[in-house]
Amino acid sequence: MRLNKFIAHHTKYSRRDADTLIFDGAVKVNGAICTNPATQIEAGDKVSVKGNPVTQKKNYTFIVYNKPKGELVTKKDDRGRKTIYHSLPTRFRGMRYVGRLDYASEGLLILGDAVDIVDILSHSDLPRVYKIKIKGDITQNIIDAMKRGVELNNKKGAHEQSKLNQLELQPFINFEIIKNTPTYSTLKVAISEGKNRELRRFFANFDREVVDLKRISYGWVSLNNLKPGKWRYFDPDEYKLLHDYLKMLKKEEKKQFYKELDEKKKRDN
Q: Which of 41, 78, 88, 173 has its CA 20 to 30 A from that of 136?
């Protein structure tokens, strides 16, 4: 495992923090200062940060938080606004979040203390399910776009500081229209991506404002009856499914490795 990833996985520091600490000479490997973030850490190596030994975690902890509207999903805000870490117990301040929900959105947020697993879940194609309320009706054009995907060439619905003018959105995994009226409509959608304000931008492209957005599940983890502002640990079934998912990924990676190896052998011959 790379040194910066090792530090991020076993301490409170992020990968970026780890890079800075390494470049500043605050990290030692087997007693010697190491300034290369890509240094491979093997079993038995001793790593210290600012003189404190890094203890390897053998277990990991994940929680589910029902984020209410009006909280930012970030470590700190330069404008002093409330973040999720103001509501969560102090012992969870070192946890990283899986994906984001914007300030006006609510619902399920997964947090964990294993950075590499958080990264895997954040960049996975696991289904994210949302319940959405929009101003206006759901037209056939919107239905067609949900089925086939859409390429956006504007910043409608994006954050005011966003620099992304173009955004290609994949087809929705699934959607269910619950209510469709000229004033307000409600639907449940499942998507496989976590692009910034993706759903708000999708509907804004059709001049539909999202007035309520709530994430109700992420992969195999569901919000169920968890109340806004409350949290819970993963239950045994969720930990088992996480373990099985990570194990499956390793098998797929191994399968891909041997496939590439076979292709190389064929080219060499």
A: 173
CB 99 within 8 Å of CB 192: no
pLDDT digit string, tens, across residues 210-247? 999 999 999 999 999 999 999 999 999 999 999 999 99
Position of tokens 């005011």?
160
pLDDT less than 70: residues of the chain: 57-58, 154-165, 268-269
Rg, the chain, Cα only = 22
Nearest Cα neighbor of 48 from 84, 19, 79, 21 is 21
Residue pair 133/120 in contact (Cβ under 8 Å)? The answer is: no
Q: Give 211's contacts (C-beta < 8 A, 6+ positions apart).
A: 133, 134, 135, 184
Give residue limits of the domains in the chain: 3-53, 62-232
Q: Please tell me if the domain spanning 3-53 has the same topology as the one spanning 62-232.
A: no
Contact (Cβ atoms closer than 8 angstroms) between residue 206 and residue 142: yes
Q: How far, in whole angstroms, is CA 182 from its chain's centroid?
A: 34
**Predicted model pTM:** 0.77
Fold of 3-53: 3.10.290
- Is 77 a residue of the active site? no
CB neighbours of 92 closer than 8 A, spacing ≥ 6?
Answer: 63, 85, 111, 231
Token code pair at residue 194: 């976590």
Q: What angle do CA 71, 196, 220 make, to 5 degrees?
A: 80
